[in-house]
Structure formats: C-alpha cells, structure tokens
Design goal:
Order of helices and strands: HHHHHHHEEH
Number of strands: 2
Radius of gyration: 18 Å
Distance between the termini: 35 Å
Low-confidence stretches: none
Helix content: 40-55%
C-alpha cells in the first residue's frame, strides 16, 4: 500500500488551509500555516486568481491529501459514488469517511490518519469478530439491534 512520504506541512501550505496531517502539531503555534501562510517554493507569495478549473482541482487535491488517497483509488471511489442516485459529492464523502483508517482516526485511537493507517494494518484491527485485512476497506454502520442478531 502506497503512502505519501513528502513533507506534509508543505501540502498544507500549498492548499492554504490546515489539513491536520500532523495531528496535535497543527493545533499548536508551530503549525506551518500559522508561521507562514504562503505557498511553498520560490514564488509562493504570488498567488494569482485561480480559474474555475483551478478551484475544482485544488478541492480535489485537498480531499485526496486529507484522506491520504492517491489518484487511481480516488477515481475508483468517484466512479462508485457517481453510480448512486444520490448527490455524488455527499456519497463520495461518505465513502471516504467509512474507510477503516479514517474510522480508527475518528474513534481517537490515532492522532492522525498516517498513524491510523499503521494501527489498521492487517491482523491488528478486528471489527465484529472478523479481522479486516485491507486498510481501505469500507466499514458499514451497525446498530445495537443488528449486532445482537448477527452474533447469534
């Protein structure tokens, strides 16, 4: 499974918002956005007016970087979301939120999604008496009545 090994604070500066890729450091005054809110690189302070395509591309890149997904996997999720009859954007966000590494992060077992990917590795995470072997596996919500029925 691939992961991003570039400096993640640089990604936050490129997007211009906090993506919380470093966990608690993003909430401290040491955050790169708080120190210098310019895009990385020699000409980072020159941010021109973005076109419509540029705005959509930045939003897509922001989602990919926030959830730690690469292009091919993101396209697969988008194709899956566009097949549904509901709003494509909302379905895409629900698919990304149900990933196992994101669930581990949201439950508070890991400070950031990169650490959650390590915590959700194969043979470390058990969900409803079945071990999940894929980090990007989708978790479906289970209510208390369904859990009791499934355990019998």
């Amino acid at each position: 499974m691939a992961r991003t090994i570039d400096p993640v604070c640089k990604l936050c500066r490129r997007e211009g918002v906090k993506l919380f890729l470093k966990g608690s450091r993003c909430e401290s005054p040491k955050c790169a956005i708080d120190r210098r809110n310019v895009a990385p690189g020699m000409h980072g302070y020159r941010r021109g007016k973005a076109s419509e395509y540029g705005i959509r591309l930045r939003e897509k890149q922001k989602l990919k970087r926030f959830y730690g997904v690469f292009e091919r996997q993101f396209r697969r999720y988008f194709a899956l979301a566009s097949r549904s009859k509901e709003n494509t954007g909302e379905v895409l966000l629900s698919i990304l939120e149900r990933r196992l590494d994101n669930v581990v992060h949201r439950l508070g077992f890991a400070p950031d999604r990169a650490a959650a990917r390590l915590g959700a590795q194969p043979r470390r995470c058990t969900t409803l008496s079945s071990r999940r072997s894929m980090i990007d596996r989708s978790c479906s919500p289970v209510f208390s009545g369904e859990r009791e029925a499934s355990s019998k």
